Amino acid sequence: MISFRRLSHVLAGTGRRKWIWIGLAAVPAIRIYYVQEMIAALIIFSVLFVGAATVVLIIFLVDRASQQIVVWAEAGVARLIHRVLAASKA
Fold first, then answer.
1. Count of domains forming the chain
2. Rounded-to-integer distance, Cα 10 and Cα 88, Å
3. Distance of CA 25 to the CA centre of its chain
């Protein structure tokens, strides 16, 4: 560990040119960090969008299947009622 006093002496000995180079290096690093953050946000957004689209698709398919099942069951129940009524008249 280095003390703050020693660190300030080390930094004071750093020349002006070195600080300029450090500053020039920091600007692209900050931009690269920003781009990395935006890419990470885009990936997270894409994963959440795919998840939401999958849920909507599943709900849509279940709804379509249930409509077909109701139509099929309605026809079967109608035939069953006709048979019961015909049997009861006989």
1. 1
2. 105
3. 34
Q: Which residue has the tokens 């040119």?
A: 17
Domain containing residue 13: 4-89
Angle among Cα 38, 41, 45 to the nearest 5 degrees reads 140
Distance CA 89, CA 47 (A): 63
Over residues 55-86, the pLDDT tens digits come to: 999 999 999 999 888 888 888 888 888 888 88
Buried b (16+ CB within 10 A) or exposed e, 64-77: eeeeeeeeeeeeee
Instruction: Quote the strand ranges of the chain, DSSP E.
Output: none
25-62 per-position pLDDT tens digit: 777 777 788 888 999 999 999 999 999 999 999 999 99
